[in-house]
Structure formats: structure tokens, C-alpha cells
UniProtKB/TrEMBL annotation:
It comes from Streptomyces bauhiniae. It comes from the Bacteria. This is Pyridoxamine 5'-phosphate oxidase. SUPFAM superfamilies: FMN-binding split barrel. Residues 22-129 form the Pyridoxamine 5'-phosphate oxidase N-terminal domain. Pfam families: PNPOx_N (PF01243). InterPro entries: Pyridox_Oxase_N (IPR011576), Split_barrel_FMN-bd (IPR012349). Gene3D superfamilies: Electron Transport, Fmn-binding Protein, Chain A.
Amino acid sequence: MHTPRDPAQRIRDTLTRLDTERDLWLSTSHPTHGPHQVPLWFAWDSAALWMCTNATSPTARNIREEPRVRLSLPDTVDVVLLQGVANLYPATEAPPKAAVFTTKFGWDPSTEETPYVYLRVEPKTVRAWRGVPELRGRVVMRGGVWVG
């Protein structure tokens, strides 16, 4: 059993995980094809998460139709769930901030033969909790503003 953290500690812990972890689950949806969930590498630039996928993937297709997404870090005990709107950028036309991804992983999607897109998600809602004692107060970001 974990000792409940105050909101400020939850935010610090969440930011540490966003800075250090490699993978997340990205959930998208399409009006006709329904929900879709994939694991992706990600990089955090202090304001947004950057991911990359093939330009013709179901993930990219879904985001073009419905840009609202949900993301989660892959730990079911130390939960971090994020919601936001995804923006797509062709890898060959990515803004400078996308370099956080290539720097972290040593891979430049713009050099691939097949076209890739960067996905940028600036969280609007973040929930973080460890077990039942932290369910109350689990929203640590609301409307894009950290609360704590």
C-alpha cells in the first residue's frame, strides 16, 4: 500500500515519468472503424508529447478524422492517464520541437523511404494515482493547467 501523495508530489512524479519513460499507449477512434490502441515511443518537450507513426497507419488515419486522443503510461499501479488533441506533422516538415524525439531515440523518421508523421499532443487533462487512497484528487491537470 502506498502512502497518498499530495497534488504537488503527484505532479512532480508525473513530470519525472514523462521525462524518463520510453513507451506509452495511444488510443484513437474513427467514426466508422471504431477504437484503436497502439504502443508508441514518446518524448516530452516540457509542454507536449511527441510520437511518430507511418503516415498511412490506422493511428494517423484516425487522428485525421478525430484528433482527440487518450494516452497512458504502461503501469497499472502508478497510473498516469492523459487526454488531448493530436496534431500531425509530416516528418519532412516537422517543427524544430520535434527534434526532442529524434534526440531521445537516435532515429530520424524523415530519412525513411516510407512517409512518417509526427504526432504532437499537448495534454489538456492528466490524471495520476497510486491505488484507491489516491483516487480522490487524481486530476492533476485540468484545461491544460497543472492543479496542485
